[in-house]
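TL;DR need structure tokens for one chain.
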Amino acid sequence: MAGFLSNIRYVAWTALAVAILFLIYVAFSWAQANVNDYRFWEAALRWGHVLTGIMWIGHLYYFNFTQIPNVPKIPEEHRGPAISKVIAPAALFWFRWGAMFTLITGLLLAWNQGYLLQALTLGAFDDPSFAVPKHIFIGIGMWLAIIMWFNVWFIIWPNQQKALNIGDRYASLDAPAKAAAAKTAMLFSRTNTFLSAPMLVAMTGASTLF
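>> reply
TL;DR here they are.
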């Protein structure tokens, strides 16, 4: 057992397999669903959306509440390449792909529920005389999430690549340019941290307030 638990790949893949089998068993046995039942796909997509969302926002909060505030407290001679060459690139991998799959599963979930266009247009696809409040509410949350996803992939990640010389593509970049890239990445990461709270209000409240 210790050998199994010591290997995160074994733990992660086995946990995913057990979760999927558990979902299928409950859906098909207790809920009497089938692969053509929208309830099954809603449950599967909602699970995937929450799982990948935890990966994304968890790393966002790790960066902003743990790594960024505390790395400057470590003496320069003790930082070495451990953070910039090992920890940060690995965290950024899970961070950006968590964002990607959270967005994809969220859009698919909205499509499964039949309100994707209504939410993205903030109710414009509803009856013109009556925009459904839930669609406007969840739509605001979806657009905040899309902005956050855009920041991750097109601002934070490219600037972190420059700041940390990930993939050895920016070895010739001078120190001021790297510092500027790091600051840009930090500011947009803080922006995402700010947006995450109202975004989560919409994502969680849409299922309970309406």
